[in-house]
Design goal:
The chain is an alpha/beta fold. The chain has 9 helices and 8 strands.
Length: 230
């Protein structure tokens, strides 16, 4: 018997009679249904197809229309949950900013399954990196922590800069004006291989589009993205 990572309640596994004869793999649970229900799921019929933003229609939002006017191919980002919501913000604060590595388990199975359901293993799965200073302090890349059961290929890395202002500390305008923070570390020629960029949060999209720009310079095929929250 285990406890919910979020609230500490005891977790109990309930198996149906049909499941017992289905030969399906046991899925380990780390969060109780009551806590999970407090995260707001995104529905494909009511979000922007370009970035996954929650809205009343499934038309392109103004942000994605601006990306198109800049001549950029949209990433068609898919996300599981709304970020601008207290439960998700608290989760990100604890997992990412406070560095509680155990909390990767809250969404690891679900996020990994979501990635594989949307993009087959014919794609390269590329996690957005963390800078050296953050890694030394936190000890892990929060995106890699969310991934399980498929190979990750690191194609981009942060440039070495002594003092870097974190994206979470920037205003929206400052994020949009951020210069290319990455260097390319993959093969010289990607030979039109399709790539899925993986990140924890899509806010302005600036980070993901910077990464995508580098991949296109090295002959990537289609480039899409998936994030836990939008």
């Amino acid at each position: 018997m285990a406890n919910c990572l979020l609230c500490g309640r005891y977790l109990t596994d309930k198996f149906s009679f049909g499941w017992l004869f289905s030969w399906q793999k046991i899925m380990t649970t780390y969060v109780c249904p009551r806590c999970l229900a407090q995260f707001e799921s995104l529905q494909i019929t009511s979000c922007c197809p370009g970035c996954g933003r929650k809205q009343e229609t499934n038309d392109l939002c103004k942000d994605c229309q601006r990306w198109q006017k800049m001549g950029l191919e949209l990433l068609n980002n898919k996300a599981l949950y709304v970020y601008n919501q207290n439960m998700m913000k608290d989760y990100i604060e604890r997992y990412k900013f406070m560095g509680d590595y155990r909390w990767r388990l809250v969404f690891q199975e679900q996020f990994s399954r979501f990635v594989l359901q949307n993009y087959s293993k014919d794609y390269i799965y590329c996690p957005i990196p963390v800078d050296k200073q953050t890694y030394q302090t936190r000890g892990f890349n929060q995106v890699i922590g969310l991934c399980k059961g498929f190979k990750l290929t690191e194609l981009v890395a942060f440039k070495e800069i002594k003092e870097r202002k974190k994206q979470s500390h920037k205003t929206r305008k400052q994020r949009m004006l951020t210069e290319q923070p990455f260097i390319y570390i993959g093969p010289i020629d990607l030979k039109q291989q399709n790539v899925v960029l993986l990140d924890d949060i899509y806010t302005t999209g600036r980070t993901l589009y910077h990464a995508a720009n580098l991949l296109r310079q090295h002959n990537a095929g289609m480039i899409k993205s998936i994030t836990l929250a939008r």
